[in-house]
Every structure is written in structure tokens, then in C-alpha cells.
From TrEMBL:
It comes from Rubroshorea leprosula. Residues 399-422 have a biased composition (Polar residues). InterPro entries: PEP_COase, PEP_COase_Lys_AS, PEPCASE_His_AS, Pyrv/PenolPyrv_kinase-like_dom. It catalyses: oxaloacetate + phosphate = phosphoenolpyruvate + hydrogencarbonate. PANTHER family: PHOSPHOENOLPYRUVATE CARBOXYLASE. It comes from the Eukaryota. Homotetramer. This is Phosphoenolpyruvate carboxylase. PROSITE patterns: PEPCASE_1, PEPCASE_2. Pfam families: PEPcase.
Amino acid sequence: MTDTTDDIAEEISFQSFDDDCKLLGNLLNDVLQREVGSQFMEKLERNRVLAQSACNMRQAGIEDTAELLEKQLITEISNMTLEEALTLARAFSHYLNLMGIAETHHRVRKVRSVTHLSKSCDDIFSQLVQGGVSPDDLYSTVCNQEVEIVLTAHPTQINRRTLQYKHIRIAHLLDYNDRPDLGHEDREMLIEDLVREITSIWQTDELRRHKPTPVDEARAGLNIVEQSLWKAVPHYLRRVSNALKKHTGKPLPLTCTPIKFGSWMGGDRDGNPNVTAKVTKDVSLLSRWMAIDLYIREIDGLRFELSMNQCSDRLSRLAHEILETETSSHDRHDGRNQPFSRNQLKFHGHQASSLPTQLPPRADLPACTDCNDGESQYPKLELPRTDYMPLSRKDGKGSLNSETSFQNSSENVSKSFSNGTPVNGPQLATGHRGSFSSNQLLAQRKLFAESQIGRSSFHKLLEPSLSERPGIAPYRIVLGNVKEKLMKTRRRLELFLEDLPCECDPWDCYETMDQLLEPLLICYESLQSCGASVLADGRLADLIRRVATFGMVLMKLDLRQESGRHAETLDAITRYLDMGTYSEWDEEKKLEFLTRELRGKRPLVPPSIEVAPDVKEVLDTFRVAAELGSDSLGAYVISMASNASDVLAVELLQKDARLAVSGELGRPCPGRMLRVVPLFETVKDLRGAGSVIRKLLSIDWYREHVIKNHNGHQEVMVGYSDSGKDAGRFTAAWELYKAQEDVVAACNEFGIKVTLFHGRGGSIGRGGGPTYLAIQSQPPGSVMVVFHDKLVPA
């Protein structure tokens, strides 16, 4: 990743930065002049001059004058009314925000002006190769690298998302203002846009008037993905791939994911009773919904871009199979034909003729117009009007009109588009409309509308139809089918979020990332084989990389709970079963009990158990985790972990919930068991971290479980915030260093790889700082393949 925090760029002029500051400052003054009046502006300017003069005197060492000016400033502010003081504070706050936007934009401008970035992928790879790393080793290391960035919300976040978006808009306008070809009229319009944004900011309340819910926080995190990461990730991976190809001769594999993202928003219930099992489930479904929605938008753009007819045999067969499946579906809906079986579909797909090489005269294509709303970088699609009528039109008696019937044999299906135009097939009449009463027509339209739930007008118009549009390109047929499944998946998620029943055939929806990747990779391979690699490596490759990185959930949700809550739950269970009191047992007895139950095959918790609400909430959380599985969830983090029994307790509760859910479903739970991650935060726990990991790995069941279910990786999290509060930053830093050394040594003793999850990010007090320096400061041997970092979104 590029980092230029220590780059020396003295040759970069600050004139543009100064111009931006003056522009935004003057525009803010104009807005305030209009909003608060000239009389208050005089007070504001007088206070500004006093504050700046006092600061200058203090820096110059003229203390007496500085104190005099400061006393006068205090008197001025003390004489203000509360409303005037609030307006003064708001004005200076917005001024500082605008200067911050100008400074950030200048940093971006500076990076663009530098011809060579000292920490770019290209530069780092070049240094490694020159330092003796072989190209094969470099390629293997980069492809196997895995960094996961976990986003979390924090109460210190006070900026409203509304104002953040307005600040982003101002930054975009400053970027547009840098264009050398900007005309006088365009610049005047840009100034007007800036005035509108600043006015809107001034008239917007800076404070949230209600406490954000966990779902609100999760929605904010998803917006970060949509607004920033969605575009940045494929761009970054392209740069990595190009640099890798330059130095090793091989590009980064499309499905390689050196960087991934997770989230705690909606899953972190430690100390937050508002994060319930239902909230976790809803946030996970919402994350899936947004992922599907973003993929639908990308598929729309791809369908317009991939308009070519030439394709590979594999893609041709897939397109034919989709057309035949759709034809049989229409026939079932109209009552004309019996549905094809999947074996028949596969047979017809292999026997189908090649797709046509030209479009028929009536196959209208979408027109493209530029989108100037400043939001999207892709074109919008406008479709021409058409006189096409549905094939499912019936007469007043409910029977099919004879002029719209067609033959039912697959032979005619193939012949009808063998040369790009219908040949000797039954012709469809579009002029005869049949006889309808108004009530029958309304009922028919209602029935048709209900059948189109979840399908946009754009989709219905571009939807490939065998008889009416025989020449639609194969890529559009395949991608159209992908979009249809995505839309059905999105509608299914909406029903789940509304707690409504959904009887949807899993065959018609996407459940896993691999199902979505399959047709996209077929399209990619087809373009490569047909000499269109320049198209394959564009928008399609970006989408494949997005799917591989974000999956079906954008960010996997981690769960976090305090270790004492699990002990309370097991205490309630053992007392209910007359097995004793778990909380009174010593560590060895706890480990003996937990290990014995983990080796068993029966559930521990009876379905009829009656427990306290807090205990029930813990059990419900594990049940939701079993229902969602590792496809939607990441790790289960145990805060305040101090013993090996804290980890085994979570493993037992997780195993028991999965047994119960799989028994009710009649099938295995989705995905694998979640990774269980002990979080060592206090100085005492950090000092005992290595001993806890050694004790865990010495238990045969646990060691075999880690090898079998987690590929021999033990994940451990270390906390920066609480350790700093406990012992101070310097002592905490040293204890964190020693704890990591001890954990790595413990894992090495048992041949287990370690994944370190660093709970750092945001402010310096929470371990924030440049990530690359943080990685370089880790103990030798502790930076293996995986590095997890927790960030607080700004």
C-alpha cells in the first residue's frame, strides 16, 4: 500500500493549498454574512483577530502582550449571549473543517505530482528482487499474503455521516477546480456549487439528536464500503497485479485476496446490551443485501459493455442452456409444455448449435448517455420504446390464442435462431390482442406484476427471449441470468429481514461466493480465448476481484462477548442438569468437563431448559451463529480471556448450538465452526497469554480441532486500549511485545501457525498510527502470513 507520510517534497508548491484555503474561507464568510448578519460578523472577526494576535505574541515570546490580548478575548466571549457563543463556536468549527478538507486535498495533489512513490508496490517489489528474493518466492509470498482489516464503531465518533458526505462533495469540487481547462462559466458554476454545499453545512445540525443503534452503526460501516472501498480495492489489486507481473512475469490471480475486511458493528456485544442475537442476524442479512445490490449494479454495466457475439464453446453451451431453461419456464407458466428436466437441459445444451454472428433487425440495443450527477463513473442505460407484447397473452376464456402458440420440440427451438433470424419456425403475431373485459385485463396485469417482483423494467426489456430476440450476444444472456438470480436473492433477503416466509428454490438464488464466481470466470476465460483479453482485464476482472474480496456479505461479522457471560451460561446449564456449579470448579475440573463434553456426540443443552434472560441471550447468539455459519460470520472473540477454559467454553456452546440447529433443519449447518479468538487485554492477562495457548494446544481434542477446522491456525488477539489504561502506554507496549513473542513460541512448539489480531486503530491512545510502522515493530517471527488490524472508521 502506498504511504508517503515521510516523503520529502519541499519542491511542491503550497500556492494551490493557500488558494484553496482562501477560496473556502472567503466563501464561508460570504455565507455567514448572509446567515447571521454583518453585526455578528464584526464580533466574529474581532475575536478571530484577538485569538490570532495572542497566538503570534506567544510564539514570539512577548508574554505580557499575549496575556493582555487573551484577557480581552475572554472578556469579549463572556459578554456574549449563549446563542452568540454557540454561533461563534460553530463558525470556527466549520472553518477548521474546511481547512482540513483543503489540506487533505493538497496531500492528494502532492502525491499525484510525485513521479515516483517510495513505498509503492512497484518500488517495494523492486527492492526485494534487488535484495536477493527470487521472483518465484516473491510471487508465492504475495499470493499467500492475507491481511484482514476489521472496522468497528466507537463512541468518540461524533461526525454525522450527512456532514461527512458534504465534506466529500467539497473535496470533489476542489479536485474539479484544479482542472487547467476549466472555463470561466464552469468556474462560476463550481463556485455556486461550493456556496450551496457550505450553506447546506451551516444549516445542518452538527450533533446527533438520538443515540445511534447498532444497526445504524452497521449501516454506516456498509456505507464506507460502498463509498470508498468498493472502488479502491480493485484499483489497488490492479496495481499489485501490474507490479507483480513486471517483477515476476506473472500477474496476481483473479481470485487471490491479499486483503479482506471484517466488521464488529452489530456483533460486538461486550458491554452493549443493545446488540442482541436478532440485531446480529439482521445486520448480517443487511450486509448480504447490500452486497447483492452492489453486484446487480456492476452486472448492469457489464451487460452493456460485453456486447460481442464471439465466445468460447463453453460459454455458448451455457447461453443455450439458459435460453432453453427460460423457454421451458415460459411454457410451464403458460400451460403449453412440460418442464425440461435438468438432464434434458444438459443434453440440449451440448447439442445446441452455435450462437448467431449478427443481430436481427428488431433486436434493439440500449442507448448510452453520460451520467453527470457526480456520483457514478459509469454510464446510465436508456432503452428505446418497443411494441413487443408478452407471449403469455390469453383470450377471454383463458385459452391460448392460436396465433401466439409455438411448437414444443427442442429441434425447432434450435432452428429458430440458427442463423440469426427465424427460419421456417412458427411466426408470432403481435397485432392481435384478443378480447378482454376490463376486469379480466386488470386481473391479468396484477398477476403479471406480482410475478415480476424483484425484477426491474430494465431487466425485463433486456431479458433474452428465444423467439423475439434470437441474436442477443451470449455474454448478455449469461450475465442476464446472473442478474436475475441476484435479484431473486435480494428479494429473498428482503423477505427474511421482514420476517416473512420465503419459498424460494435454492437453484434460483446464490448462496455462496463460488456460485456467483462460476459464470463470471467462464465469461473471463471466453474473452481471453477469443483474443479480447483487454476487455477481460477491465471491468469484468474488477468485478471478479470484488466478489473474491467481499464475498456475499461485504464484511464478515465478528462476534465478541466477555468471558464471564459464557461462564454464567455454563453455570446455569450444569445447575439445571444437576451436574454441579460450574463457577465453583477449579480450572482443571472445568477443562476435564469441557473436554469430555466436546468429545461427546450428544447435545448438552436440553430444548426445554428455562434460564435467565441474560443466559438465554447468550444461547440465542450461538444459535444465530450456527444458522449463519462461517460464510457470514468471521471469528468469535472472547474479551477478558485469562484461562484455557474460556476458549473451550465457547467451543462447547458453539458445538451444542450447531447440533441443535442441524437437527431441526435436517441437514448440516452452513459453513464451518467459527474461529474462537481469545483477547488478552490487561497486563496480567498479557503476561499469561503464552501459558494459556500452551495449555490449549496440549489438549489433544483442541489441537486436532484447530488442525482440522482452521487449517492449523490459532488466532490470538491483543488489546491496545485497555492495556494502555491499565499500565500506561510505555509499559503496555513492552508487555504487548513480550506477549506476542510468548504466543508465537507456544504455537511453534506444537507446529501450529499463529494469526495475530491487533486491536489497534483510530487515536494514538487506542494504538493508532501508520500501519506499516506497526507491522515493522512486531517481534521477530510474529509477522507470519496473516495480519489482522482493527480500525475505527473516520
